[in-house]
Amino acid sequence: MPIETNPTHGNLTRVVLGVAFILLVGGTSLYILKPFLPGLIWATMIVVATWPLLIGLQRRLRGSRTLAVVVMMTLLLLIVIGPLVSLGNTIAGQAEHLATLKTLELKIPEPPDWVHSIPLVGEKAAEEWEAIAKAGPASLAARLTPYMSQIGSWLLSQLGGLGGMVVHLVVTFLFCGVLYASGESGATGVRRFFRRLQGERGDAIVVLAGASIRAVALGIVVTAVVQTVLGAIGFLVAGVPYVALLAALMLICCIAQIGPGIVLAGGVIWLWHTGDHTWAVVLAIWSIAVASLDNILRPALIKRGADLPLLLIFLGVLGGLLAFGIVGLFVGPVVLAVAYTLGTAWVAEADENPAPPSQ
Predict the structure, then answer these.
(1) Considering only CA atoms, which of 168, 200, 180, 212 is closest in space to residue 73?
(2) What is the pLDDT of residues 182-211, one digit of tens each?
(3) By C-alpha distance, which of 290, 281, 305 is closest to 253?
(4) Where are the domains of the chain?
């Protein structure tokens, strides 16, 4: 008597084995590509954000994609190297003035009166401060010496991270060239993939993701420029020296999403230390306003480029930054935009096709 087989059981086994094989191949592929993923993600964000500029250049260059790619790659190289060269030139131009700092006598001031009034620890802190001020900078250096080895180790680790960043920068630059040259075929593949997943909604998802990336890039750059200009104006009005150098540092910090607060705080401390307390307070208030501007301006600019709720954009930018670092500024809004589009489409589809009433 032949043994009966269960066709359902056989189909289930094939499905499970097929899914397991796909997961294994996909996971292995991601592991192999892991060293290149940061560069590939950054290159994708850069190319999508600047694609309209590439197409405009191609039209002006009589349809030559090769020349347009060369111009775009040159511009990217200048954007990366330009601020560094400008910062170096600014430092070199101010070298004579900065060298005079070595000739200044470093003097630790006496503690202000308000230190004594701090509850619980005020008197002790004031005594320690007075002891260090009387002993001079040499005593302070002696107290900090035990921690110098730890600081040196931290600096070495940061240098190692800097080397990795340079490698990722080179990989990103190479991927940008490839994507600029063959962007249409890549976009077609992405559209076909999302159409396979979501049908006609796949195209809308891809378009929304591209618009979100371009909007985030616009928001980051414009916000950084506005904060840098406002911070430089504050330095000029308050009389802080080396405004060009500080403005270059602010621009780099703003683009890196560190914010202008560190540079602005340095100006406030310098004014207070020189005895100009009024302008120090004014600059401190101005600095708080400038440093807080990105929380309002950046989401507003992103909303202009992507038709999404402002709260969703704000959560995507902030949550992406906290979860994934700088690249999360792009990943966060894109992921939430796709999820929002799928969710609203799913709800709308349910409204268009209501369930039949129960008998």
Answers:
(1) 180
(2) 888 888 888 888 888 777 777 777 787 787
(3) 290
(4) 113-143, 199-350
